[in-house]
């Protein structure tokens, strides 16, 4: 058996050192298959608690360690504080890997740190925002926005950590077979959530797929149309699901390699009425003017509604990027609105919980485009009605932090 630190270290090095997204790092890293679940758990756990671990390191390290040592310390802290592993085992494995990495000079520091560490001695900030930022490992700017928008409910959003696999079945027999092993029913037909779900042959055969419940809720809000445009489509989950209620779906995607993902997704699920096109959705293309009965703009966003599934968001997003995103979102919504024919519907969605990316963008669009009006959405998934749409929140919407608005072109 390999050192239990080894595989998580390789994965996290790609995230911290190479800027890779966690899911991609996990997919690209060869690892001991028998312990894959452990590696995934540790990798997610470290990133979920990254901010707090930084405070722990500052409290017990006289100066900031180099990146390889910091990663080893964070893995150690996760095993110690969240997996309740013996301190001696953690210390021995951390020191052993440190030496194998050619960082033998830091082995003594690592050993001393782990023997001395005491969570009770990590200083707790006095400021409320800083306290919540430390407790939930959130950037302070995100905490500030959540408190401003949600008040006392903000901490429930911060505290939510449940990360269940959401599975949508396309084959009733496979659904029955899998549900024999348990599954939590959702408000949507053939969609279940699982605390633990191992992918099998049924996935490759298109009998089921993984799709977030928020994504499914967005598709549920869409009415059938002869021709439909999914304007920011990769990897293709929404396009494929919408193909069941629309005669023809066109899927725009900016990056060529992600266009291929849409085609592969549709082929795996046996769907043949989705056409993937490489196109920048923020730039109007007159070839598609008034061409669609429905258009969905699931725009690039901060992703703070899905941090349980993507904890690296807290690491990579900055306050500057959050303030810049609404301009991109508005540009996509404005350009794609010209593809909607009279009487058709324009849908705007994000996986964000922040008003500036949601109602504010839609409000600005409606002010500048009087031909469109907002329509009420009735979703079977619990959510909060906002001025222009529905805001799903992780703690009340089965883990979904999504927003969707429906705009009718008169």
Automatic annotation (TrEMBL):
Entry keyword set:
Methyltransferase, RNA-binding, S-adenosyl-L-methionine, Transferase
Q: What's the protein name?
A: SAM-dependent MTase RsmB/NOP-type domain-containing protein
Q: Please give the Pfam families that the UniProt record associates with this protein.
A: Methyltr_RsmB-F (PF01189), NusB (PF01029)
Q: Which family does it belong to?
A: Belongs to the class I-like SAM-binding methyltransferase superfamily. RsmB/NOP family.
Q: Name one GO biological process term.
A: regulation of DNA-templated transcription
- UniProt keyword Lipid biosynthesis present: no
The Gene Ontology terms for molecular function here are: RNA binding; RNA methyltransferase activity
* Residues covered by the SAM-dependent MTase RsmB/NOP-type domain: 130-410
Annotated positions binding S-adenosyl-L-methionine: 232-238, 253, 280, 298
Q: Where along the chain is the active site annotated?
A: 351 (nucleophile)
């Amino acid at each position: 058996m390999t050192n239990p630190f080894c595989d998580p270290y390789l994965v996290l090095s790609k995230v911290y050192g190479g800027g890779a997204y966690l899911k991609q790092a996990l997919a690209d890293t060869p690892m001991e298959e028998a312990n894959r679940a452990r590696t995934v758990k540790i990798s997610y756990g470290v990133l979920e608690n990254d901010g707090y671990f930084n405070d722990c390191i500052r409290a017990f390290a006289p100066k900031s360690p180099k990146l390889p040592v910091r990663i080893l310390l964070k893995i150690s802290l996760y095993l110690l504080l969240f997996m309740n592993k013996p301190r001696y085992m953690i210390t021995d494995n951390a020191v052993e890997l440190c030496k194998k990495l050619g960082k033998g000079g830091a082995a003594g520091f690592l050993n001393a740190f782990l023997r001395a560490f005491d969570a009770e001695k990590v200083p707790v900030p006095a400021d409320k925002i800083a306290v919540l930022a430390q407790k939930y490992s959130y950037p302070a700017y995100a905490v500030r926005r959540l408190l401003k928008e949600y008040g006392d409910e903000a901490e429930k959003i911060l505290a939510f950590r449940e990360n269940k696999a959401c599975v949508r079945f396309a084959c009733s027999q496979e659904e029955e077979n899998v549900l024999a092993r348990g599954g939590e029913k959702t408000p949507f037909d053939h969609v279940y959530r699982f605390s633990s779900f191992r992918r099998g042959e049924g996935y490759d055969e298109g009998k089921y797929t993984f799709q977030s419940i928020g994504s499914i809720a967005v598709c549920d809000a869409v009415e059938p149309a002869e021709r439909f445009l999914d304007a920011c489509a990769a990897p293709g989950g929404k396009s494929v699901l919408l193909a069941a209620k629309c005669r023809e779906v066109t899927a725009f995607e900016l990056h060529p390699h992600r266009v291929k993902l849409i085609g592969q997704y549709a082929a795996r699920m046996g769907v043949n009425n989705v056409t993937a096109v490489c196109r920048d959705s923020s730039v109007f293309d007159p070839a598609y003017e008034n061409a669609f009965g429905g258009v969905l703009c699931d725009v690039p966003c901060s992703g703070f509604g899905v941090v349980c599934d993507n904890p690296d968001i807290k690491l990579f997003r900055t306050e500057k990027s959050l303030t810049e995103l609404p301009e991109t979102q508005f540009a996509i919504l404005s350009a794609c609105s010209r593809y909607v024919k009279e009487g058709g519907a324009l849908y705007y969605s994000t996986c964000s919980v922040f008003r500036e990316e949601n109602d504010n963008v839609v409000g600005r669009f409606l002010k500048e485009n009087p031909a469109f009006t907002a329509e009420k959405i009735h979703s079977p998934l619990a959510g909060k009605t906002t001025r222009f749409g529905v805001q799903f929140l992780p703690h009340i919407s089965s883990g979904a932090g999504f927003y969707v608005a429906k705009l009718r072109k008169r």
